[in-house]
Fold these 3 entries.
Entry 1:
Amino acid sequence: SKRCLLRHFSSLGFWGLVNNAGISTFGETGWLSMEKYEKFADVNLLGSIRTTLTFLPLLRKYKGRIVFMSSIIAYFALGNGIYSMTKAAIEKFCDALRLEMKKFGVRVCIIQPGNYARSTKIQPPVNAEEIWDELSEEEKAVYNKEYVQERANFFNNILSKGSTNGNEVVDAMVDALMSPAPKARYMVAKLKEKALVFICALFPTVVMDSVLSYALSK
């Protein structure tokens, strides 16, 4: 099917690729199985890389565009470190690719949405009872149900505040594909979210850790 696709687009032309595949979940590092880490890396990171490598010859030939769906969560994690990890990895893949593709006239753009959980439904509300039941005996010995419930409430509260204006992200994707001078990064987020990224990027790690620890304690 890969050969068939490439043959099809070779005659039509191929100018744009949007890597949008993504799954999300909630849980502290030790709560998640190795299988879950492998699944997330496979879908969120390797999925985009696979598609990119498949179409790279055509994108170079037609001087096309490659758009990747990242997230502001690439800069920090608040209960979904596994998702954050994959998005940070995608960002670095793009940084290398963008420089390498310049000589071929191929543009590489990253979309960094803020919280659009209510638009995309990428992450359904989490259930503390289910999370507790799936914990290993080692984790159950360290944590308690109340703590898991607190974290779940905190995370669900974030999800409930997600924007429903998903069209803002779509507009950024369209601009990345169509603009004569597309941006390398499109951050589509609320001012408060942009401020968090700003702190993360410019302040020492100890400052960011203090801000996030304070947020997590609320």
Entry 2:
Amino acid sequence: MGTASFLKRVRALLRVRNQLARECLAELLAVFVLILITLGGSAQMVTSCGTKGNILTAYLAGALAVMVAIYTAGGVSGAHLNPAFSLAMCLLGRFPWWKFPIFVAVQTSGAFISAGAVYALYYDAIRHYSNGTLAASGPRETASIFATYPADNLSFSNGFLDQMGAGVMGTALLIVGILAILDTRNNGVPRGLEPVAVALLVFSLEVSMGSNCGCPVNPARDFGPRLFTYVAGWGEEVFKWVEGRGPGEGWRG
């Protein structure tokens, strides 16, 4: 009885009663899970030179990560996971504008922290693969594990068009697809399987629009880890356009 009473008091003490705090913590955890699995799939493939993963396994990891993240926070924060989706909800009047900058900050922070966790998890593998040098370009670059970068044959002009096309269009398709999945007036997805449908939507976008720049449809997913690489030692090049970066045996995630 004493132990049960103690645990009950601990649970009461740790219970978060403020609704905004609950939503922020849920969103932080969900984004952490999303990025941990997504970057982990990329790190496993790159550092093993493709022997323990390929482009499809990395895409699949990212799609399944979305599913797990939605199940993690969907009932508390709505599992936005993405500043673009939060913005769309604001524009549609389904999310208050005053919460938007808070959610963006939480989502970006979750991605930043998760990138650090992936770096710690794959520290030895990254160092071994890169010969101890944290580079954003060259035959043994590893920055592409964490953020999206242009393919070697992509020019600046084509890259700009890709971002205006695939980036904006991909994000728009993602939001339209999610709204369609959640619209009760459509042929409904069986209750509880909505995260699975969203994961399949993300996978379809990745395999159809990821060739040029990695299908950057989530600003927090890209900026948070990119900022981490800058802080962790990859340098200012992670924020620069460099044609022909050359991933060598690796693959930019």
Entry 3:
Amino acid sequence: EEDSPSPFLRLQEKKKQVQLMQKALEVKEEDFRERMKDITCRWKDLHSKEAQLKTYMEKSGRTLKENDKMRIQALKKASKEREKKMQKESELLRAKGELEALRNKHQKLCNRVQKYSIFNKYLEDVVKISQFEEIQEIIWRYKTLVRVHKDLLQSQQRHKEMSEQAKVLLDRYTEEKEAEILQYENELVQLRLRFDQAQSDILSWEARWVDIQNTTAKKTQQLGTIKLAILNLFQ
């Protein structure tokens, strides 16, 4: 107890600590108020500068909008002129391509005419020595013969397909009938076996029937004898 401090001393120590903490808190609060004053001043300056900047931006914005409008109009005009120029160049290139294609086609036609001129001379000679009066009649006759030949080939192909189908159907029908015949033969064999078994059973049953009749006759005779004996006894 002598070594431990008294409650009074501990209380005084705690009060000192509380006073020190209170002073430190007051110092911090004063510092905080000073900082808030400084921040408030800076905030007012910032609002003032923001208002000035907003006014300047509005003026600059109107100027920029006018400049952008003029620039956009100039760009649109230049773009339209560029598109017109590109369209004309594209049309010119397309026209050049079409012209070149027509020239190539014309050259090919000329080559074909030159190549087939010998056939025209041949057809003219054929007209002279044949019953035809014009080359076009020969061409029509040739087309008719080609069409008839094509129709004959198609008809032949159809007949061939129908024949193949008929053959397939005939083979299938033959297979089905052969299977039915085989089934009927098996059934006939089974029926014959059953018939033989029935005949064997008939003979057996006939023998049993004869035995039954014999036994019945014996029993009837015995019954008659018994009745007669009973009648004699009764009398």
